[in-house]
Amino acid sequence: MKIIYCLILVLITTGMVSAQFTKFKPTLSLNEKSQTSGSTSDTATKFGDYTPGIGFNLAKTKMGDLNFKLFSYVRYLNQKASDDQYINAFNDTTTLKLRQDWQFAKVNIQFHGWLFDPNFRYLAYVWSNNNAQGQTASVVVAGNLSYIFNKHFTIGAGIGALPGVRSTEGTFPYWLTNDNRLIADDYFRPSYTTGIWFKGKIADDLNYNLMVGNNLSQLGVDASQLSSSIATVSGALTWYPSTGEFGPGNGYGDFTYHEKAATRLGGHFTYSKEDRLGQPTSDAFENVQLRVSDGSVIFKANLFGNGIRIDTAAYRMASFDFGVKYKGLSLEGEYYFRWLNNFSGSGVDDLGFNILEDNGFQLLASGMLIKQVLQLYASYSKVFGQYGDPYGIRTGLNIFPWKNQYARCNIEYIYAYKSPVGGSSVPIQVGSTGSIFHIDFVLSM
Questions:
Q1: Which domain holds residue 213?
Q2: For an engineered disulfide with 335, which of 269, 351, 361, 386 has Cβ 3.0 to 4.6 Å away?
Q3: What tens digit of pLDDT does each residue of 55-102 get?
Q4: Inter-residue contact 234 to 162 (CB < 8 Å)
Q5: pTM attached to this predicted model
């Protein structure tokens, strides 16, 4: 941890020195504006103006501004063609309650802008998981603060996503699917926690993102459950060699129809020391748990034998991604490696192993059948684990009725095999095998 603290001190000092010599007035693209905590003073010209990706301007003064954004969707879900029983690698049988229902599934209300200085940004939001009303963390109230010193250095603090995979880099909601990840991505990824982060450009086509946080997933976890040490760090390097960008939000698919091939390469690494007492409940909002590849949580008592209970474990995960977009077509993929070790707890000497190793990948292809109107995509995702090799296949359509990315109808078919991830807020359940179909109408201002 001394290395981490030294790195933080160096980054803060570098940013402050740079700020003394550069009076920086950020000129951001629409994408960059939508990914920051606010907007510059020229984002809106008057009260009530709407900017796609930023939302409606509610206030504009010499001392700051206030903007409003909304993300929400209605979902029809049908899991009836899936198996209703799941036998895991430990021969435990679970009966799945297969769903067929309509849900006004999630609502994310954001207030964001700048205060006192256009470089000082704030974000506050309420995000509801209406599929799990009444459960822990079905409604989250969160936010963060940040300051842009220059294009090379931004510092932020609050609730943020650990940048351990591409989908937690700030790419949401610019995904091919709606709000749910492919099996491998969801299995390996870190999540949202409270922490401090540093990001910016090393060069015009090379970006960095570093975050130090409390744990892998703090949503659904109160402060008294956290361990007394800060031992979670996550970082990413992304390179855009051909065009220096990769579309809105650096997201998936080529809705913007690149006339010159856009390319992307990314590398990520995350380390965290996880404690059994600091885990969210099994179906909490944006839940991440340490699981083996049959979906079993490693902290479950007697999972690996009578009298054995893991209390703490070290999580290390690396991922590497690539992507290319050209004239409405895209091909994108990511490979993941994860190691769990340094176990402590009751009876861990009898585990029979010192380390759990898993790897996996996802591959996505898409094409605009009708420019800015109709998009077809397909994906394959697989986990190679010591307790099973689950996979998922998806194909879907995105229909953009107003020829923009901020309102769409997503129609998707999923075939899952022994999914190790899932929950009430996503189409898949843990243990799902079989066909799943859902239709979402999505509004993302």
A1: 2-444
A2: 361
A3: 999 999 999 999 999 999 999 999 999 999 999 999 999 999 999 999
A4: yes
A5: 0.88
